[in-house]
Design goal:
Chain A is 20% helix and 37% strand. Chain A is α+β, with helices and mostly antiparallel strands and 364 residues long. Classes of the chains: A alpha+beta (364), B mainly alpha (233).
């Protein structure tokens, strides 16, 4: 994939050092790390609101910052869309004027109607921000950033600006925005499950340093990464195809591309359209999977997937087994079970989980 | 009763002059006070406290002292006044200009303070957001900072107007008390009070003075209420 952002920056503060070197490609990239580990400073540096002490930043091949060559493009000329954690709509302007603030009708190739349609904010145009809900304001802020002709959209904790009950509502909009306008998204969050619902391409930050930048199923092979990720909660993501849909039985049957894996999940409460042949993402929490050394008959658990243990990490009486079932998944068992059953690297196992433990996420 | 409210030509002239001085003063002061108010609100520099102290000086100086200092600077022998007088033939002291300058100098700290405070209350994060949307420094100022600081600007305008209406000490020492040229309401009242038997005229002028001040203060109060309402909403 094309790289859109090349970073090599150092930012020194009194009690804090941000030191990041990486290349970010098109698509959606999640930046995950505990609070106060430099995520917002990183976004501010990219946008030009904070000046790094050394290094360079290239956006789509253009140098916008280089400490040695004394290049430091102004914020307004970087064309970086920034959706702030506190949203920052202009309180004295209507929603329509907020949206059109950075939009140049004559030059822009972005269609105003398409933006407000995608984000479902047409009914808000004449309102002032103070009369909009948290989720509505956030969608307006996203629309405003897209309309300003951004090359990249930076989002700071987009899941925390709204009511906890509604926070996941933003996810389909972000997906739609990415697909309609093809803008690379860089999303910062301290909530791994929310991030994973959007993207498996993750950058892990710890103490201002880049721990890793990889796909989630590769990240889990490293104990250091697991340490950072597991406290936030997580789940496995399986990429599967629908080969049968039985609405009367509330059941979807899925297989993987090489057809050596078949599972069934409930079609409810997923509200999207399910069609045979579609690719689907299925989420399963590591603690909802059990391991067996051989296939178990006479058991109500329908899904029994063969795999090979690639790695085992022990932590606080738990054993995290990384099992390759065609893609890597995490299975959480107790350390006692792991010892008893001799679950070690290279062992062939069956991953058992109930159909009700798996949830359909979204279509790609 | 109607005779009591029949204003003489000289009384009208004082009222007109007062309004004229107050309006011109407020109009001239506004852009300067916005610039300096913004500068003090948003910039830190070496010796900022000293600059602030000097700017606020007319607030605490006896107005007559301010008038005297203005006379030293703008009088025909003063270093600006002599230049204007000799090269351009303009006499500042004891003219209408002097009345306006005295009003400007005396109200300046009040206006700057009001505008500066309201600019300080404008969230810098909104300015940053405007920048990320591609807005230049000037566009950010005129579309975000200034509109959000508008209540302070309006109350600053009213303060300049009201303070100019009441200005006495600096005016009488720097502009003199010349009927039709520098004799504003307070000066006219002062003159009438010196003459026995002029109680009716004094009353008429005092009445207008109270009325104008009241209108200005009610205006300021309405603006304040709007600020509070905007904040609460």
């Amino acid at each position: 994939m094309k790289s859109v952002l090349e970073l090599n920056i150092k930012l020194i503060r009194k009690d804090f050092l941000l030191d990041i070197q990486t290349t970010i490609s098109e698509g959606i990239t999640g930046i995950f790390g505990p609070s106060g580990h430099g995520k917002t400073s990183l976004l501010d540096s990219i946008a030009g609101l904070t000046r790094p002490d050394s290094g360079y930043i290239n956006i789509n091949g253009k140098q916008v910052f280089n400490s040695e060559e004394r290049i430091n493009d102004k914020v307004q000329s970087r064309k970086i869309g920034y959706v702030f954690q506190d949203v920052r709509l202009f309180p004295h302007l209507s929603i329509e004027k907020n949206l059109k603030y950075g939009w140049n009708r004559k030059v822009s190739n972005i269609d105003f109607d398409e933006v407000i349609g995608t984000l479902q904010i047409r009914h808000l145009l004449n309102k002032k921000p103070e009369f909009c809900s948290g989720g509505e304001k956030q969608r307006v802020a996203i629309g405003r950033a897209i309309l300003s002709g951004s090359q990249i959209l930076l989002m700071d904790e987009p899941f925390s600006a709204v009511d906890v009950r509604l926070r996941k509502d933003i996810i389909p909009f972000l997906n739609a925005v990415y697909q309609k306008f093809n803008i690379p998204l860089l999303i910062v969050s301290h909530d791994l499950p929310d991030l994973l619902s959007l993207t498996e391409n993750l950058l892990l930050l710890k103490d201002g340093k880049l721990l890793a930048h990889d796909k989630f199923h590769n990240l889990i092979l490293n104990e250091k990464n697991l340490d950072v990720m597991h406290e936030s909660g997580w789940f496995n993501i399986l990429h599967l195809n629908v080969f049968a849909y039985l609405p009367a039985k509330n059941m979807v049957l899925l297989n993987n591309k090489s057809d050596n894996l078949q599972i069934q999940v409930l079609s409810e409460p997923f509200k999207g359209n399910i069609e045979v042949g579609n690719e689907i993402k299925v989420l399963i929490k590591p603690e909802n999977i059990a391991l067996a050394k051989e296939q178990v008959s006479n058991i109500s658990v329908r899904n029994q997937i063969p795999g090979v243990i690639k790695k085992v990490f022990l932590k606080d009486g738990l054993a995290f087994c990384i099992v390759d079932i065609g893609e890597n998944i995490i299975v959480e068992v107790t350390e006692a079970s792991q010892k008893n059953m001799k679950l070690i690297q290279g062992e062939e196992v069956f991953c058992l989980f109930k159909s009700t433990a798996a949830k359909i996420l979204t279509f790609n | 009763m109607s005779e009591l409210f029949t204003y003489s030509a000289s009384e009208w002239s004082a009222i007109r002059l007062s309004l004229l001085v107050a309006i011109i003063c407020a109009i001239i002061i506004l852009p300067i006070a916005i610039l300096i108010g913004w500068f003090l609100a948003r910039k830190d520099f070496y010796g900022k406290s000293i600059v602030e102290g000097i700017l606020h000086l007319p607030l605490v100086l006896p107005p007559i002292t301010t008038g005297y200092l203005l006379l030293i600077v703008f009088g025909n022998n003063g270093f600006i006044g002599s230049f204007l007088h000799e090269k351009l033939g303009i006499q500042i002291a004891f003219s209408f200009y002097a009345a306006v300058i005295a009003a400007i100098v005396v109200s300046f700290p009040l206006v700057t303070r009001s505008i500066r405070l309201s600019i300080e209350l404008v969230d810098k994060k909104l300015e940053q957001a405007a920048q990320t949307l591609g807005a230049s420094f000037l566009r950010v100022f005129f579309t975000v900072t200034l509109p959000l600081a508008m209540p302070g600007v309006i109350s600053g305008f009213i303060l300049a107007f009201a303070r100019s209406l009441g200005e006495f000490g600096a005016t009488i020492s720097f502009a003199g008390n010349i009927e039709g040229e520098t004799q504003t309401l307070p000066l006219a009242i002062f003159s009438e009070m010196q003459i026995p038997g002029q109680e009716a005229s004094t009353f008429r002028l005092v009445f207008v003075s109270v009325l104008l001040s009241l209108i200005a203060m009610i205006g300021a109060e309405i603006v304040n209420k709007r600020i509070l309402k905007n904040k609460a909403g």
